[in-house]
Design goal:
The chain is an all-alpha fold. It contains 19 helices and no strands. It has a domain of 232 residues.
């Protein structure tokens, strides 16, 4: 042990003592704050000069596409906006060394934001959908995640990136790529590369799916379910559904509740599978996902506990909305820090293999999903 390390150990009193002092972290924290404030319309900040408002203006110029704003189809939200703004600042102007210690607080903000997400997934909201749609939502989630992880291994994709793709694609929400980052121990470049690949695949899927649905003559009601489970994000799914017909779009909004409330099962499943694999193959240098996590994270246990409470309807609507406003602040700060920490080279270094895995897994999912829904309609499991 070096002399500096020995002095550090003598002075350390708790895990909080490992944090940088407020004075050291302040420049980076301020950078994160300003990016968050100028990226999104965050609660409590009446700032009209935001990237989100710029996108709203562009949506007004472009006009709706199948009843959906273009910016939302491209996944503009409280994560993507500050991430994009941070990337632009970092790659155009650079990041001073004085900011970097504050940016390290992303490792605290991400787990905290995930914990606060728990009350957002109230399972009772999906009970009215019926048993068959819920079973299809769960089957699509677990089959897509397993298939993606398997394809990633076959194509020798870095298992951290494969895990990120599996989570984002299976849940139908690119946010999950960021949620899985601290659990999988993925690189920031892998997360953004995977997130971009899922969004681009969604653009392809939302135009392909209506053609297949029309060819199979699926009822519009259940094409709405196929769109929700087969496309990259919520607004892309609505685009696909409204492209086939108004009823399909209306029912897509209805069925999206089922996809949304089971979402935590998707990223928990990916983490548990990769955590067990890492424990079994500790000496394998190619097994990198969850490397360094030696026991089940305590904060993830807190999330599961709160998710169970939410499932029991112990969080009332006002509390749920108030907590989600805090989530927006937390993830905006963390996403801004992530954007400032990356260069375009960090993202491009992971190539197109991840996008290839995304496309193959996504197309197989669409085929299996359409076949399953067609069979359920024919057999009466899904009443027309």
């Amino acid at each position: 042990m070096s002399a500096n390390a020995a002095v550090y150990e003598q002075n350390r009193r708790s895990f909080l003592s490992s944090l940088y002092s407020f004075r050291e972290a302040l420049p980076g924290l301020l950078a994160m704050l300003f990016i968050a404030v100028f990226a999104n319309n965050l609660p409590g900040v009446p700032n009209p000069l935001t990237l989100e408002n710029l996108f709203y203006w562009l949506d007004g110029v472009i006009g709706p596409l199948n009843h959906q704003p273009f910016s939302k189809i491209m996944n503009s939200n409280f994560v993507w906006n500050p991430l994009l703004l941070g990337l632009l600042i970092a790659n155009i102007f650079g990041v001073p060394d004085a900011w970097k210690r504050g940016l390290s607080y992303i490792h605290m903000l991400m787990p905290l934001g995930i914990i606060m997400l728990a009350p957002h997934f109230m399972i009772f909201h999906a009970f009215k959908l019926g048993a068959a749609p819920i079973v299809l939502c769960l089957a699509s989630l677990f089959i897509t995640a397993s298939l993606t992880l398997l394809l990633a291994r076959w194509l020798k994709l870095d298992d951290r990136q494969g895990s990120i793709i599996a989570g984002g694609l299976s849940t139908g929400d690119p946010h999950v790529c960021a949620i899985l980052m601290p659990l999988i121990k993925a690189k920031g470049g892998q997360v953004v590369n995977s997130l971009a690949g899922i969004i681009v695949f969604g653009l392809l899927a939302m135009n392909l799916l209506p053609l297949l649905g029309s060819w199979l003559e699926l009822p519009e009601k259940y094409f709405g379910l196929a769109a929700v489970l087969g496309v990259g994000n919520g607004h892309q799914a609505l685009y696909a559904a409204f492209d086939l017909g108004y009823e399909a779009g209306r029912y897509a909004q209805w069925f999206d509740v089922g996809r949304h409330v089971v979402m935590p099962a998707g990223f928990l499943y990916v983490f548990i599978v990769m955590f067990i694999r890492q424990r079994r193959y500790q000496s394998d240098p190619t097994v990198l996902a969850t490397r360094g996590i030696n026991q089940f994270p305590l904060w993830l246990g807190v999330f599961i506990f709160l998710w169970v409470l939410a499932a029991l309807h112990l969080f009332k609507e006002p509390a749920h909305h108030a907590v989600f406003n805090l989530v927006k602040w937390d993830f905006s700060l963390a996403a801004g820090a992530l954007g400032l920490s990356l260069s375009w080279r960090d993202i491009g270094a992971w190539g197109f293999k991840g996008f290839l895995v995304t496309c193959i897994a996504g197309l197989i999912r669409i085929v299996l999903l359409l076949a399953a829904i067609a069979v359920c309609v024919k057999t009466g499991l899904l009443a027309v």
